[in-house]
Amino acid sequence: MKIAILSQDASLYSTRRLKEAGEAQGHDMRVINYLRCYMNITAHKPMVVYNGQPLENFDAIIPRIAASRTFYGTAVVRQFEVMGVFSANESQAISRSRDKLRCLQILAREGIGLPVTGFAHDTQDIDGLIKTVGGAPVVIKLLEGTQGIGVVLAETHQAAKSVIEAFRGLDANILVQEYIKEAASTDLRCFVVGGKVIAAMKRQGAEGEFRSNLHRGGKAEKIKLTPEERSTAIRAAKAMGLSVAGVDLLRSDRGPVVIEVNSSPGLEGIETATGLDVAGKIIEFVAKKATNGAPRDRIQY
Fold it and tell me: Does the chain have fewer CB atoms within 10 Å around its N or its C terminus?
């Protein structure tokens, strides 16, 4: 089977592991820098061109789209979909998950546990916005932030007002969420592939750091999920339309709450913490679906 990994950097751990796992299973694997692709958009013969050559006869693609390149990256994924190529995650699902506000609204509609969250554009009623989520301490997030960047813990009401005013002064869109104190600076990363949780780890924030992201110095270890946590992760991925997803949960006093659904979850942390061949599981899923000509509804753009 001929499979393309859409990634800006072939040397990244996740990209390398997917390529190695695919080749180990006998597939023809290619890494394609999607930013260097251009598209011929036509009803007669749509195509994606890379280094001057049309990308033809691919059975499947695995998108590894950077958050900062979502618009162009999903356009390339969408073009492959127009060409009838199976994608591990559909373009619309990637776009949906990258919009944090839209993601939370979809999860709320499905009745999935979430931190109490406020969103506003005007700063005139900051006090009311903070009270909406239960008062300080609160977590303030930039909608466009990734890997813990643009996430601030405001421990007092005045600190929260100052941060919100600063972000809004930059015309940035922000979310204000309740602080789940009982989570104790830990979260759970649940790796979902094909509607099943295939691996899970607990991430602990570095000393003095409430964010548990491994990019921020956090540590990870293998964890056994409760049935409710497993069900929540699967439901969250399904609600977003993602076949491959990293679902981040917090353990709250009222049960698991989802803080993020990632459409291009990194493999290094989860494989190191669990010792599992996550890349191999992704390749197996993609190959099976592409071989069976996985039925899909008509893509809604």
Answer: C
